[in-house]
Specification:
By secondary structure, this protein is α/β, with parallel strands linked by helices. It is about 40% helix and about 20% strand. The chain contains five helices and five strands; from the N terminus they run βαββαβααβα. The protein has helices spanning about 15-25, 60-75, 85-90, 100-110, 125-130; strands at about 1-5, 30-35, 50-55, 80-85, 115-120. Strands 1-5-4-2-3 form a five-stranded parallel sheet, sandwiched between helices.
Amino acid sequence: MVKLYVGEPGSGKTKLMIGEANASAETAKGEVVFIDVVDKQNARLDRRVRLIYTTEFEIDTLRSIYGLLCGIISANRDVEQIYVDGLEKMAIDLKPDLDEFLSLIHKFAEKNDVDVILSASIEDPELLSITEKYK
């Protein structure tokens, strides 16, 4: 499953995702992973949630985010859920590749039996229309 939370900055996407990740950590048989640009969520996440900071890996495109997800799964097949907070902060430009990226993530999630929950602050109407089927 792929789910995408889209909204204005400060609309509560991160708080919602942290709540979901923490709840999942209590019942998950496998791993729950939370990916963010900075480490400010460390204190708010359950200790059982694995936190990854993208600044450690020079992530700057949607393709590199996809590569990171593939690396996580290849290293640990027990991952049940992956939360990716703030796509627009990780990728320099969402516009040219967002549709392809979401399609890749959908195939990735199905193939690996993992839930991928993403968030992004997007205002561009063209990009918003791409995200509709993942809300």
